[in-house]
Design goal:
33% helix; binds nicotinamide-adenine-dinucleotide; 26% strand; six-stranded parallel β-sheet; nine-stranded mixed β-sheet; Rossmann fold; 10 helices
Length: 353
């Protein structure tokens, strides 16, 4: 199976490593508009004899037989590049967020529907087997109806050097700049935590969001105006009557990359804690039955499940639909737009209006 990669920055190395591990899959060609990044990628993997191009257009006109293309460009480029890939007849694996806004996300969904190609968005944290078990248990009704939800996404790259000095690297600076297509923490990691919460609990009906951009980190670095948000808190009302808080910050000192979801239901409670090292990704915490009155949380070890890369390849092989798809990406984008509207107008927003 032949895979192409668009964008050879930070996340593209993971795309390469994960696809390359799968039997019968080969990364055939890559492209990047940044010569330095393209050459770095090609030289790192030179024994794989990957062909490199200076643009998506060059790659599409020179290569004919991809089974799928992954889109690892920054958020701002997802719409145009993904639509081009779909219209060229290729299945697509696109990085999150799907787009910069719901309007663009809808155009991407339309292109996916019209071309009938397999389309997937890389909501990475869906890969946790403990999370998948949490979703199954909630959907089975075993712990009753969700009543109260707490979903947190914590990163600390603005207050630690865990991932290097953000002031010196383009890959962090574009994430802080609206002009460079970023919706800040909300668009970058907020999409993950909203997907994580609603896929488990159900759709959100109404939302109130407080978004924060800290100007004391400096207003300008080179071409980057640091005006995209650093974190947010959302109050949510779910369609099924549950209420919850969904929060995200890049100032969570002590957390490199943590996602914590707690769902309290009428007959039990569930909790997953995902960490940077993935050491807790397979452990589901559950309090139910006789443990409810003893405040005891049982740990359930959940066997590892296929990752998003493996699922994408499998769905190409079987020509079957896959989740999370572009439609889910657009649904999350609508929530992001609603958060911005709520913050700007200081109002609760009905997601479906
Ligand atoms: N799923 C996850 O958990 C996860 C993790 C990290 C990043 N991401 C997403 O991956 C995307 C890329 O992030 P990154 O950290 O790798 O960024 P990056 O800046 O390190 O790399 C992006 C690369 O795309 C190239 N590029 C830009 N426009 C292009 C175009 N039109 N054609 C070809 N190449 C182009 C850039 O030159 C750069 O080399 C973002 O959308 C980000 O949100 C997702």
């Amino acid at each position: 199976m032949k895979i192409g990669i668009v964008g050879t920055g930070n996340i593209s190395f993971r795309h390469f490593e994960e696809f390359n591990k799968i039997d019968g899959v080969k990364i055939e060609a890559v492209c990047d508009t940044n010569k330095e990044n393209l050459e770095k990628f090609l030289s790192l993997y030179k024994e794989h004899k990957i062909r490199g191009y200076s643009s998506l257009e060059n790659m599409l006109s020179s290569e004919k037989n991809f089974d799928g293309i992954t889109n690892a460009t920054p958020d701002k480029f997802h719409k145009d590049t993904s639509i081009k890939i779909l219209n060229s007849g290729y299945n697509i694996f696109c990085e999150k967020p799907l787009a910069e806004n719901y309007k663009d996300a809808k155009l991407m969904v339309e292109a996916a529907i019209n071309t009938k190609k397999i389309n997937m968005i890389n909501f990475t944290y869906r890969e946790s087997s403990a999370y998948q078990k949490l979703v199954d248990i909630i959907k089975s009704g075993e712990v009753g109806i969700p009543r109260h939800v707490s979903a947190c996404y914590y990163q600390s790259w603005l207050s630690s050097n865990k991932w290097g000095d953000w002031r010196k690297e383009d890959k962090w600076l574009w994430r802080l700049s609206k002009k460079h297509g970023s919706n800040g923490a909300l668009g970058d990691t907020g999409v993950h935590i909203f997907d994580f919460a609603i896929n488990a609990v159900g759709d959100i009906k109404e939302i109130f969001t407080d978004i924060k951009t800290y100007y004391d980190k400096g207003k300008q670095i080179g071409d980057y105006t640091l005006d995209a948000n650093d974190g947010f808190n959302s109050l949510v009302r779910f369609e099924n009557g549950a209420i919850g808080t969904i929060t995200n910050t890049r100032y969570a000192t002590g957390h490199a990359n943590s996602i914590i979801l707690e769902v309290f239901c009428t007959k039990g409670a569930l909790k997953v804690e995902l960490d940077e090292s993935r050491s807790k990704w397979s452990t589901l915490n559950i309090c139910q039955n006789e443990n409810i009155n003893k405040m005891i949380w049982e740990k359930i070890e959940c066997p590892k499940t296929p990752n998003n890369y493996e699922n994408f390849v499998k769905s190409i092989k079987h020509n079957s639909k896959i989740q999370p798809d572009f439609n889910q990406g657009a649904k999350i984008q609508k929530i992001i737009d609603s958060c911005i509207k709520s913050n700007d107008n200081n109002i609760w927003v009905d997601i479906n209006n």
